[in-house]
Amino acid sequence: xxxxxxxLGRIRRAVADGGPDPAVPRDYLxxxxxxxxxxxxxxxxxxxxxxxxRVHRADGDGIAPLLARLLAERGARTVLVPSxxxxxxxxxxxxxxxxxxxxxxxxxxDAVDSVVTGCALAxxxxxxxxxxxxxxxGRRRITLIPDHHVCVVRxxxxxxxSVPQALxxxxxxxxxxxxxxxxxxxxxxxxxxxGVHGPRTLEVILLSGPAE
Length: 212
Description:
Layout: H1 3-14, H2 37-50, E1 54-59, H3 63-74, E2 78-81, E3 96-99, H4 106-110, E4 114-117, E5 121-123, E6 128-131, E7 148-155, E8 159-160, H5 163-166, E9 177-179, E10 184-186, E11 192-194, E12 201-208
Parallel strand pairs: 1-12, 2-3, 2-4, 4-7, 5-8, 7-12
Antiparallel strand pairs: 5-6, 6-9, 10-11
InterPro entries: FTHF_cligase-like_sf, LUD_dom, NagB/RpiA_transferase-like
Protein name: Lactate utilization protein B/C
Domain LUD: 110-207
């Protein structure tokens, strides 16, 4: 009898009675510590910085000039803009805007200098940003192919403390992209290479106050 047969046999015996699935104990901590919304945002910023993301803060009046400055510092000539992104966010920049077209191929997306998106939510304890393809986020490929991604996180409404708090807020049927810092990998000698599986540069704007 093979190992596969033994494992399958154990599974068949375990479910042979046809009863309900046993309850899974979920007695782990849902959040580590008690924080105010401001402290949660600070923790998110600290963990994003540890992952080598560039973190900025802005309010509703400051986001347009901040985005204009970030794109100018990058030397961006084109910026990919997903449907649903508030138009005034890019009102202060003269960079050519490229729409998120379903028919755009990877070569066209690779030629874009920057992409600006919103997000579904962000997780402070892990420094993770989650995109689900909702308004202002676009398709998954537009945040994986261009080399420079600027992501706007609305504080505090889009920030949660932990992964257990995040999961009930996300729809598993949507195309979820979990981002913890810029794309990077290391070889056997631990030489870090960035930009292999996604953008080489990730900039995160923590936006407080009215965003529209």
